[in-house]
Amino acid sequence: MEARPFSDITYRQFLNEEKLMGSKCRKCGALFLPPRPICIKCHGTQMEWAEMKGKGKLVAFTCIAVGPPSMIEEGYDRKHPYVSGVVELEEGTAIDARIEEVDGNNPESIEIGMPLAVKFLHRGEGENLRTYLGFRPS
Amino acid sequence: MQRKRKLGRGVAVVGAGMSQFGMFKDKNSKDLFAEAFNEMLSSVDKGVDPEDIEALYLGNFTNDFFIHQAHWGPIISDLIGHTPKPATRTEGACASSALALREGVFAIASGFYDMVLVGGVEEMSKLPVEKVTEGLALATVPYEMEAGFTFPGVFGAIATAYFERYGATREHLMNVTIKSHNNAPLNPKAQFKVSIRDIMNSRIKRAKDKGEAVPAWRDEKEFLRDPVVNPVVAWPMHLYDCCPISDGASCMLLVAEEIAENFTDDPLHVIGIGQGSGRGLHAADDITYFEATRYAAKEAYELSGLKPEDIQIAEVHDCFSMAEIIHPEDLGFFKPGEGYKAVEEGLTALDGSKPINTSGGLKCKGHPVGATGIAQLYEIWRQLRGEAGERQVPIKDLRVGAAHNLGGTGGTCTFTILERR
Predict the structure, then answer these.
(1) B132, B133, B149: which to substitute to probe chain A, counting the most A Cβ within 10 Å?
(2) Given an 8 Å threshold on Cβ–Cβ distance, is A86 in contact with B148?
(3) Which end of chain A, N or C, is surrounded by fewer C-beta atoms within 10 Å?
(4) How far apart are CA B279 and CA A57, in angstroms?
(5) Residue B152: its chain A contacts at CB < 8 A?
(6) CA triplet A131, A60, A80: central angle to 5 degrees?
């Protein structure tokens, strides 16, 4: 696709562009998200980009009432918990993400296995744009 | 092919000390280490000249963040009059001092030194809780932090996956909390020396004395279900599922086995050591166990020639109640999915068949992260030598104990087996 390095920095640049990009080992076909420069299955170093469709299901979650200062700045606190989770994508790989549009005060309403779709969470603008990976019920 | 590993020569523990654990406004890292060091010196049955200590290995996770002071090896070396001999800091997040012990063991086993001091220290209570949470989250993998995960959050997520797979519930987590709080009052060095029942009763009494509405809790679980006293931290982890913020220090004196009798007739032998590394939640094959713990355990069992059933007591890294359910499974004490049943059946209680966290665990003893690994082994030292006082386990012929220490999202896991001969 593009000659960008298979790195965390590139991964975040792609998130800013609303693309969820992983790397695929040219030797053994293993898929990694976030992208890796070295295949941890066969130690191959030839990778290619693979774009994820952004669809998956929830495999684990937590509703966080005591968050770090960065989340408190976003308006979350003990009365307004946010949800973080692990999402298994249709492509078979899993990723950590914010889980949006669910009720952190009502964890019983959040179900393991529920279908999710990607939602890019943009913070800041221009050179300060930073996009976090989120998913929402689909 | 990997050859069978062995130590170049045997290593023995001949002294151990640990400071009081707690939140101290008036004690710093040096004060706490001095407390642990002085106890260690007096624990050596035939005495030891500190001049004979050849090197110091000190675990510290991030006093850099907590009190804005790094480079703790030489600071502690200077404190105990050890300079100019070498001091090395080890960092493995909450497993930092287990790594110190491991380096100390290798240094003696290689023949390079005959006597080393290994220890750990952390001073966490000077910051507000949100900042401490942020400091600890430095040990997550980057993608976890970006997704908002804290450590209670990591174990909360593990719990939801475990519950879904094995049918455990929040009620089972409460069994862990109640057990830890039952053990801790018997440990004079613990941060929370009080049972859940006593906390409950004192709150009821206080309400009565003040003429306020008296809470209607009938037992410990009703107390723990009450969101007023036990609020959510990171669902399903509630306040009483989480270890506290702590200050503390710990240390052990290691010597070559062949000279151990110069210091005591009752040394403990380091017969198994194992260490693994892991890669965080998203990249785990399965988030209901830690691959790094299983690897560390396999290493330690192979070195010692022992099996999980040979371990008579253990301290495991119960940073959260959920952790005390999955680690014993990873260590082979119980089958996957059966850890929560073992706690429910009382197998891990002080008088159970496999006592776990007799010290009160990280939950109640406290968790000054860099000090924890060796503080866990301090408990094994007391128990194996029959010096655990009121919390001494009632096992006849107690000979083998072990400690499991975990750092990060299972990023660094260790398992250490000690034997009394």
Answers:
(1) B149
(2) no
(3) N
(4) 21
(5) 62, 64, 66
(6) 60
Q: What is the pLDDT of residues B373-405, one digit of tens each?
A: 999 999 999 999 999 999 999 999 999 999 999
Subunit contact A84:B161, Cβ cutoff 8 A: no
Per-residue pLDDT, A95: 97
Pairing verdict, β A47-51 and A21-25: antiparallel
Q: Which two tokens stand for residue A100?
A: 């949006």
- Token pair 């105990």 is found at B80
Pairing of β B412-420 and β A115-123: unpaired
| Domain extent listing, chain A | 8-51, 55-137
Q: Do B287 and A72 touch (CB under 8 A)?
A: no
Under DSSP, the state recorded for B214 is P
Q: Which two structure tokens, joined as six digits, stand for B213?
A: 């509405």
Q: Which residues of B touch A33 (CB under 8 A)?
A: 282
Nearest residue to B381 via CA among B37, B34, B18, B96:
B18
Please tell me the predicted confidence (pLDDT) of residue A2. 60
Rounded Cα gap, residues A64 and A82, in angstroms: 5
pLDDT digits (tens, 9 = 90+) for B83-94: 999 999 999 999
Q: What is the ipTM of this complex?
A: 0.96
Q: What is the DSSP letter of B176?
A: H
- How confident is the model at residue B285, as a pLDDT? 85
Decide if B130 and A133 are in contact by the 8 Å CB cutoff: no
Using CA coordinates, name the residue in chain B closest to A69: B130
Question: What token pair was written down for A6?
Answer: 């298979």
Which two three-digit tokens encode residue B155? 């174990």
Beta pairing, strands B87-90 & B55-59: parallel
Average pLDDT over residues A48-74: 95
Count of residues in chain A: 138
The domains of chain B, with CATH numbers, are 11-127+244-420 (3.40.47.10)
Question: What's the pLDDT at A69?
Answer: 87
Q: Is B246 helix (H, G, I), strand (E, B) or coil?
A: coil
The answer to whether A52 and A61 are in contact (CB under 8 A) is no
pLDDT tens digit string along B330-371?
999 999 999 999 999 999 999 999 999 999 999 999 999 999
Q: Is the pLDDT of residue B1 over 80?
A: no
Within 10 A of B112 (CB to CB), how many other CB atoms are there?
12
Label the pairing between strands A94-99 and A130-137.
parallel
Give me the pLDDT at residue A1, please: 54
